[in-house]
Amino acid sequence: MADVLLKVAGLESWYGESHILHGVDFDVRQGEVVTLLGRNGAGKTTTMKSIMGIVGKRTGSVQYEGTETIRMPSNRIAKLGIALCPEERGIFSSLNVEENLMLPPVVKPGGLDVERIFTLFPNLKERLKSQGTKLSGGEQQMLAIARILRTGARLLLLDEPTEGLAPVIIQQIGATIRALKQEGFTILLVEQNFRFASTVADRHYVMEHGKIVDMIPNDQVEAQIDKLHDYLGV
Q: In 3D, which of 125, 128, 180, 184 has the Cα closest to residue 158?
């Protein structure tokens, strides 16, 4: 278990009076790409936000590199080296691409420099002075991911990075995730599209009703495709 980077155990979360997570248990090992699969409302995004400490209340255990974070504020969690790329992307309309890219502070050494980011996302280099929200959906997603690569975070939480994107852009996002894995990043990915997930991930956790109900290694996806269809309602 020495290579476990993130260990979540008995995680419960609430928004106000709404009890969303009911004892979530899973782990992510150093250098893995792991997905959380499940239907809408299963608790996937809440799990991401709970890891970052940005829910109303959370109990249980979330350990990063052996450090317990359950009572830490979100800014301290970020400084450990965890970054969230939210589904809504959070691009600032008042800032251009360059300003959006440079906005988050560096929290740890080891982030990618701007030139390396441009090799991953050449579109961004061409659009540096464009208003952030004038980008296409795919370019906005690239900018949202690029922004957290500068920070020094080594665990990336990507929430629905392919949502609403054209197939050619989805392929580009997949290539980027594989490249980041090669560079030593660890990625936890929330994804509805398990066909896409199977092109990038090592393992898949399935969520239902605020719990993890199964774990499927990527090399067993085809053998368990009927079970996946039942879980995901596809």
A: 180
160 near 192, Cβ under 8 Å?
Answer: yes
**Residues 163, 156 contacting (CB under 8 angstroms):** no
Tell me what pLDDT residue 234 has. 65
CB 186 within 8 A of CB 5: yes
pLDDT tens by residue, 124-164: 998 889 888 888 888 898 999 999 999 999 999 999 999 88
Residue 34 structural domain: 4-232
Q: What is the residue-averaged pLDDT of the chain?
A: 92
Distance CA 213, CA 210 (A): 9
pLDDT tens for residues 156-193?
A: 999 999 988 889 989 999 999 999 999 999 999 998 88
CA 142, chain centre distance (Å)? 13
Q: How many domains does the chain have?
A: 1
> Minimal CA–CA distance to 86: which of 160, 142, 143, 147?
160
The one-character DSSP state at 92 is -
Would you say 78 and 69 are in contact if contact means Cβ atoms under 8 Å apart?
Answer: no
How far is residue 46's CA from residue 178's CA, in Å, rounded to a whole number?
25
121 vs 24, 81, 142, 153, CA distance in Å?
34, 22, 7, 18
Domain with 53 in it: what CATH number? 3.40.50.300
H or E, element range at 171: helix 167-182
